[in-house]
Design goal:
Length: 883
């Protein structure tokens, strides 16, 4: 028997398969009526992620087609879950009505019963390009980044599509990891043939055609977006930056199918302007996320008192990119001080801010073409409230410069807010399709249309009463549904009376216990409603477009107002936080000091407070001649906490926040390094001793005398000897070669001997006391070496059985006796010369014929040579080389 012939795909299947192909690696949401349907593998993936039923529909290639679907009206929630699970989604919408499809079929000569509604992919939904409120976290920026490489320099373009803020920067390949760690983008786009390993580019980076990343393409796209002839007014950008910007906009164009989201003028950011922190440092300081993930337990979780999402987002930006410019830091601190000194006004400000909608994101949706009447209402309310704040704060006595600057940006939207206020109802709906958002009295012709349909509605209500009377059927009702429109309904037992040929009613539908009719008058009124309604909708739609256009025109100053409100919120929020626990205004100086009295760790302190325990404040006093503190003492004694609290205080200060201390004098830190010995990370299953060493090596290569380094038990992840040797070498290098400020926590007593040779190193320990055989940890820092390890006492504290502890004590006594006799494992280390220069010495130029050849080649002016002369030279050089 011959094989079954391949059945020709139905037109719909052919259409689906073409769109499926176009969607690439994205799931295809295929619009069918009120549902987005998914088929084949897409259906399996989505059903698993969304936990919805997988069914089948028809067949393809002889097998049933797996299918699942989500209702269009609740699609956002499902999209959010798919995006969270790492999926990308292509939305295929119906781009014509069934009527239009029939018309088209007629023109094309196909039977109109076969007419298939045209569909097209209108948008790709990806993690980095979201604007919908439901898909975004209010307190977190959502970054999309694109990278381009140009002769060793890497351009980074980053945008928060939800607010349009765009930043361009350039970095070296070595620093790319740190830049990406700071931006924490949810999507990264790179040229397709450039997938550098080891630079920190995520594996799931999106590959896009290289042509989009050309720097002149970037210039052209930026100019086009902003309607300018040159970018000069926006700042100076390198070619690598422009290439990245080009790649970024090309990608946005691709996912938006030709419609771009809100993009504000690009801002050039120089990495020289912010404190450098690499990924390991950010991770160990738990700045925006705790090690467990999430805000709880992170620095921002303990600091953020902002009352708006935009404020929290700006604070996150401040904390991820602390400043290096003392004037800018002082400006932020002065703003905090202003609100700190005015608790009553601060409370009013925060009340006002709390009620202000997220202007930046509403603007983002409107400009992206996904705005709703509610978004316009939010812009109206937010901008009006901003103007009220302006009125209140303008000319405030003793206002610091940043406040004056910010307050100046709160106003200037009068015409727009007036227009929106007149046009919109008080609380416009999120749905724009059913109208009802344009206020009565705004447009006389709209009022008339509404009047007409209102009259018709009233006429229908009156008709019901009249029909009841005429037919004598009291249960007669005039009802409405989406399929039949208006109809008259009576129960089945009354139906006969209306069925009579001369009754004036025409039968439409028989249900189980009801029968439905139409009448000429009802039909006429219903048509009046439908027509007026349709015209009214079209009229509202036209007004909507006009209002949107006005918003789009004002997008830049609206964005400035949104940013100004966020800065106010951050300033007042920081003041609020400072007031809660008496945080102080740090002094930021230009000398290599770090003097903190009564410093606290904001996260640990808050955690202790929840259990009613008190945090013990500790001082830190680093100076050029006492710049490395070696900190010993028992486990659980508070070493790690002390190290981190000082790093966090530096970070907070340079971010322009008050700090958890009584006083703080902080010399500007250009780079902050935090390293934690491998064992602490083992639980996370990723850090190995190797990683620890790679990260430590980065300090030795990148730290400067202006840097601040905290080293927490570095070297712990290996055997005692190796670990001690490494810790020793690293401490020495940091002290003598980098000569930067450093806190080094260690459990190696032997390191104390470093104090004999390192003049700027001093010994400290966290105090503990044995009391009635128990160990009491005082969490108090004191001068001098740790006297003993208390390891056994900690073991007892941890519940190791007494007989085991006793045995360990006997072993320890024996070991200590040996140590006394031989000088211990560090015996003789004190005599070692300081480690030789760790940084590679200058390479000595090679001598010999190869070198001379290279020099000759360098000196040759190739453009001035004839081909003959060139050939002669080649022969000559070849002769000069040893055979
Ligand atoms: P170490 O690094 O010395 O082992 P940690 O810094 O990890 O110690 O501190 C262990 C625990 O001790 C912390 O989780 C905290 O509960 C408590 N602790 C640390 N420092 C302090 C302090 N200054 N005041 C009060 N409790 C503290
Ligand atoms: Mg520790």
């Amino acid at each position: 028997m011959a094989a079954l012939p391949e059945s020709k795909p139905t037109p719909m299947m052919a259409q689906y398969l073409a769109l499926r192909e176009e969607a690439g690696d994205a799931l295809l949401f295929y619009r069918m009526g009120d549902f987005f349907e998914l088929f084949f593998e897409d259906a399996r993936t989505a059903a698993a992620v969304l936990d919805i039923a997988l069914t089948t529909r028809g067949e393809h290639g002889g097998a049933p087609i797996p299918m699942c679907g989500v209702p269009v009206h609740s699609a956002e929630g499902y999209l959010a879950r798919l995006i969270k699970a790492g999926c990308r989604v292509a939305i295929a919408e119906q781009v014509e009505t069934p009527g239009e499809a029939k018309e088209r079929a007629k023109r094309e000569g196909t039977p109109s019963s076969k007419a298939l509604v045209g569909r097209a992919i209108v948008r790709l939904v990806t993690a980095g390009t979201l604007t919908e409120e439901a898909l975004l976290e209010p307190r977190r920026a959502n970054m999309l980044a694109a990278l381009a490489e140009l002769r060793g320099a890497i351009g980074v373009a980053a945008v928060d599509v939800s607010t349009g803020a765009m930043v361009l920067e350039e970095c070296t390949p070595e620093n790319l990891g740190a830049v990406l760690a700071r931006l924490a983008p949810s999507e990264v786009v790179v040229p397709e043939d450039w997938a550098p390993k080891d630079l920190g580019v995520p594996e799931d980076a999106i590959l896009r055609p290289r042509t989009g990343f050309a720097s002149d393409a970037g210039v052209a796209r930026l100019c086009a977006v902003h309607g300018v002839a040159t970018l000069d007014a926006f700042g100076t950008f390198t070619r690598a930056m422009l290439g990245a910007a080009g790649g970024l906009i090309a990608y946005l164009d691709h996912v938006g199918r030709g419609s771009l989201p809100l993009l504000l003028p690009p801002v050039a950011r120089s990495s020289a302007g912010t404190m450098a922190m690499d990924a390991a440092t950010r991770g160990s300081l738990e700045i925006l996320e705790s090690a467990q993930g999430g805000r709880a337990g992170s620095l921002i979780g303990a600091v953020d008192r902002c009352v708006t999402g935009a404020g929290s987002r700006l604070l996150a930006e401040d904390l991820s990119a602390p400043l290096l410019d003392t004037a800018m830091i002082e400006a932020r601190l002065a703003l905090v001080q202003f609100w700190r000194d005015r608790p009553i006004e601060r409370a009013s400000l925060r009340d006002a801010l709390r009620s202000i909608p997220d202007l930046g994101r509403a603007l983002g949706r409107v400009v992206a073409g996904r705005g709703s009447p509610r978004d316009l209402g939010q812009l109206r309310d937010g901008l009006t409230e901003a103007a009220r704040l302006h009125h209140w704060l303008a000319g405030a006595p003793d206002a610091p410069a940043l406040l004056v600057d910010v307050v100046g940006k709160l106003t200037g939207h009068g015409a727009l807010t007036d227009g929106l206020a007149r046009a919109l109802v008080p609380s416009p709906p999120t749905e724009r399709g059913s109208g009802g958002f344009i206020a009565d009295g705004y447009d006389a012709s709209l009022d008339e249309l509404r009047g007409a349909s209102g009259d018709a509605r009233r006429a229908i209500a009156a008709m019901e009463a009249r029909y009841r009377e005429e037919t004598g059927i009291n249960s007669l009702k005039i009802r409405h549904n989406g399929v039949l429109g208006y109809f008259i309904e009576v129960s089945a037992r009354h139906a006969d009376r209306l069925m009579a040929a001369d009754s004036g009613f025409t039968h439409r539908q028989t249900m189980k216990d009801a029968v439905r009719f139409n009448s000429l008058t009802l039909h006429a009124e219903a048509t009046r409603i439908a027509e007026a309604g349709g015209h009214a909708l079209a009229c509202e739609e036209a007004h909507f477009e006009t209002l949107v256009a006005a918003v789009v025109d004002a997008r830049e100053i609206i964005a400035q107002t949104a940013a100004a409100l966020a800065r106010l919120d951050v300033g007042a929020g920081n003041a609020e936080r400072a007031g809660e626990a008496d945080w102080c205004r740090p002094q930021v100086l230009d000398e290599a000091c770090l003097e903190i009295t009564a410093g606290r760790h904001p996260v640990v302190e808050a955690a202790l407070a929840r259990t009613g325990e008190r945090f013990v404040a500790n001082d830190c006093a680093l100076a050029p001649d006492n710049r490395l503190w070696l900190i010993g003492g028992p486990n659980m004694g508070g070493k790690s906490t002390f190290l981190r609290q000082n790093a966090l205080i530096v970070l907070l200060a340079q971010a322009g926040c008050f700090v958890p201390a009584s006083t703080a004098r902080i010399g500007l830190v250009d780079r902050l390094f935090s390293r934690v010995g491998a064992a602490d990370n083992l639980a996370r299953g990723r850090s190995t001793f190797m990683v620890e060493m790679v990260e430590t090596a980065a300090i030795l290569a990148q730290a400067t005398p202006r840097s601040f380094v905290i080293l927490d038990e570095v070297g712990r992840g290996t055997s005692t000897y190796d670990g001690l040797a490494l810790a020793w070498a690293v401490a020495e290098a940091v002290h003598s070669q980098i000569a930067c400020r450093c806190l080094f926590a260690t459990h190696y007593h032997e390191l104390a001997r470093l104090a004999e040779t390192c003049e700027a190193l001093s010994l400290h320990h966290v105090r503990a006391r044995e009391w009635q055989g128990d160990l009491v940890l005082l969490h108090e820092l004191a001068k001098g070496p740790a006297d003993r390890s208390y390891g056994l006492a900690v073991a007892r504290l941890a519940g190791v059985p007494a007989n085991v502890v006793a045995r360990a004590k006997a072993v320890l006594t024996k070991l200590e006796a040996t140590r006394e006799a031989t000088g211990g494992i560090a015996a003789g280390l004190g005599d070692l010369p300081l480690f030789a220069n760790l940084r590679d010495p200058e390479p000595t130029p090679p001598a010999g014929p190869e070198h001379q050849l290279a020099e000759a080649l360098k000196a040759a002016d190739l453009d001035a040579l004839t081909p003959r002369e060139a050939l002669d030279l080649l022969y000559e050089w070849k002769r000069a080389l040893p055979r």
